[in-house]
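Ticket #4471: structure output looks truncated?

Reporter: J.K.
Steps to reproduce: submitted the chain below (358 residues) through the standard prediction queue, then opened the result file.
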Amino acid sequence: MRVRFLALILLIAFLSSPVPTNRVDKLFLVYMAADNNLYIQGMGDILEMEKAKKDNLKVIALVDDKTGTRIEEITDREEIIEERKNEDSGDPEVLFKFLNFALSTYQANEIVLVMWGHGDGRNFKGREGKGICFDETHSDFLTIGEIKDVLSKIKERFNRKIDILIFDACFMQSIEVSYELRDYVDFVLGSQTYVPLDGLPYDEVITTFSESKSDLKTLSVNIAEAYFNSYNNGSQGNENVTFSVIDTSYTDEIKNFVNSIIPILISKDDVLSVREKYEVPMNEKYIDFISFINNTLDENKTFRFISLIKNLVVVEFNNFDSRFKGVSIYFPPYFFPINLSFFSDSGWEEFLWHRFAQ
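Returned output as attached by the reporter:
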């Protein structure tokens, strides 16, 4: 009887787990929040995706724009899989349904997910916090906490992480984001500063992914390099950009280090003047994390920090400003706590409180 009961439990577990119907080596997923003034850029990026090489690779996109919401497979043209009403791309349930569909349909060895849209720096209804995928019709956006919850459900359901997460959006490459997503994503690619309207060169990025026979770290570097080269007198002209790769497996060590230096930072009288030197242009809420620490601590502490950063920031491309080293941290010129784990776990929130709230 006990054996039958155990067999029944195993059968139920098997039936409740999604079984992908198609095997593919590589899966490139795009969550495109274009229900805003980036609508035209979204159309252009889809055309770039159509031109890319896709050997043993599927490109699946959720496109939310002014005309509605649809899931597409991008081959050499747009092939609509499912059309929906105009959904809210700032709703985490919409993101979950998209990822659940893609991973239920395709079993892939490697998965790259692109979060496409406006990044942090916008604000709806007085909400402050790290956000992306702003939907103007619904006045909504995805918080990093919501993305974390979605990726947690995906990991639980499919027993795997997202290999590479790319933020095709402004201001998203910060330590608190990578720390929040560390259990669900291996590598995070993005810019700590402004991203030009053309965003990623999708034909080059997807072709790089398709042709890659390298490990994920090398692939991440190659994708970041393709982005940078496209703006460095490349296919997308000449723009001042930053782009970096973060290995999330080292974010806990960074958190521990920050926690150890909080008393020192609290005791410093000049941190606000140092902060001003490394403020991210067009977004006063963020500063360069590396430059701030290097110019605040003594040599011994800085040496330890640099050794940790070499592991965290796999590569950093920058033709913009040498003050920016690849990763930012939330440090506005006022006290406004945000609901991300790094701030409580590292003691950074306590430091900000001492600077502004006393």
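Triage note (M.O.): checked the attachment and the full token line is present. Residues 251-312+321-356 form one domain.
Status: closed, working as intended.
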